[in-house]
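User: For documentation purposes, I need each entry recorded in a consistent format: the amino acid sequence on its own, followed directly by the corresponding structure tokens. There are two entries in this batch. Please keep commentary to a minimum and don't merge the entries.

Assistant: Recorded as requested. Entry 1:
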Amino acid sequence: MSADFTEDAAAAPKKKKKDLGSFFKVTTDKAAGPPLQQDQAITFELQSYLQTETLDAEEDPLKWWKESQRIYPRLSNLARKYLCIPATSSSSERVFSTGGNIVSCLRSSLKPDYVNGLVFLAKNL
């Protein structure tokens, strides 16, 4: 039974990652019409979005995009994908810096478990 499972897993096609351009890629569908109409729809959606009122700083942008998904379907896909990414890496840089301060020339033979514990204590006390 395990041999069948590995054959099925190997035969399954791998999922292709989507990039930024794939959200605006034109699909050829006979009912959709020529690609020019798709380009016009994208342009109209972007211009309409740029003319909307600016969101208040106190409001949740993810909630706004969820509510506006019907009006801006392509842009809401982009927002859902890219608004979840943290803007900075400063928290991870602080942890690496703390680790560098703990592991010095005199303390270079510390075991990794002890270093992890010391970094945890330094950041949480």
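Entry 2:
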Amino acid sequence: MGWLTKIFKGSSHSISGGEYNRKPDDNRFWEEPSRGLEVYAPNENEDIDRAIALSLLEEEDRKSRAKEKNVHLEEDEQLARALQESLNVQPPPLQNGNSYSPFPFVYSSGYRICAGCHNEIGHGRFLNFMGAVWHPNCFKCHACHQPIFDYEFSMSGNQPYHKLCYKEQYHPKCDVCKHFIPTGMNGLIEYRAHPFWLQKYCPSHEMDHTPRCCSCERMEPRDTKYVKLDDGRKICLECLDSAIMDTNDCQPLYLDIQEFYEGLNMRVEQKVPLLLVERQALNDAMEGERHGHHHLPETRGLCLSEEQTISTILRKPRIGTGSRAMEPITEPYRLTRRCEVTAILILYGLPRLLTGSILAHEMMHAWLRLNGFRALRPDVEEGICQVLAHMWIESETMAGSASSSVASTSASSSSAMSSKKGRRSQFERKLGEFFTHQIESDTSAAYGDGFRAGNRAVRQYGLKPTLEHIRLTGSFPY
């Protein structure tokens, strides 16, 4: 107020019609004259009004600066406490793109709503992340629903996870060893997967002699033991459930295949012996056959035309300790040539659907030979045999659906046969789909390309016209 005092002291205006009284050395009080007698010059009035206004503005500004200073001091103290607390533990660096470090807890000094519980946070610690604020106990893992207090966590979409919870939820596990599939040198997760079953496994299991089921081709998990057959093959428990293990057990299936061919008006007139054999016996018979095209790497069926002595399995093996099939009883069987076909050999220990598809394939070889089809190219003969195998599996797994049948005659016969078999298990239906997938996706020239060419011809022209065209030209119609 010094400048205001100086204004008054420096005023050169006189006061008329009134008194101005003050005590010596006393600047605190002044007595204003009587209002009725106050007369001021115009310029003097303006100076006084301006002085009073400036005085009031300065007082308001001083009070505002003092209040703002107190607020800043309070916030600085809160921030200092928060920073001191955050420096107690140093957060580790980011390890990968899925890890996030939240900002340190700070103290609320205003009105904020928690994104978790939707209540006001008030004055206290809170977490600021992803454009929202949270109570510390409300920032929870989307998997275990427990608060996240770690300095690093993972995100999937907009959902936070503990790092371990995220790994359990999203990091793929090997279906063989049950461990997390390791990350490669490039930081990516690399694994193998079966094209049909989608069984995921570490790439190393392709090199460590992990066995596969000889039927469905799935790898043996570490916590499950496959049954080891006497000839070294292994079969999973699901496939073993419907496996045909000896020649006698296969006879009802043989009758079903014969009925299937009769339903297609393709009756096999001669009685052709059907024998189930071990792998080595089948390989020996294949070497003794002078002609014929065989599916590699392993042949599972054979239509013989030569006279041989075959060791057939007479009685199924028993399952011993260590999940091993032991002591199958075999006997020699002398094949005598009475017609163009001496016997049909099938590998033992395969599920009923796979055994039946192999038998339907080999039965078609027999039908072609017994009906005068000579010197066919491998892709034509093996292709049309695969078509019949494919049709039989469809008749077993997709009966009654005309759209899924290759020929109308097979659709009617399949629906009639399926009424006698009852409902199949879910796995057996899936197994049938796998065997049809194998036939359809075969990459070999004879079995794969031959099947696709024969299948197109049968769908377009029908089975009987296609067979007649093969008889006359030795090729599929186009």
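Summary note for entry 2:
The CA atoms of residues 98 and 154 lie 5 Å apart.
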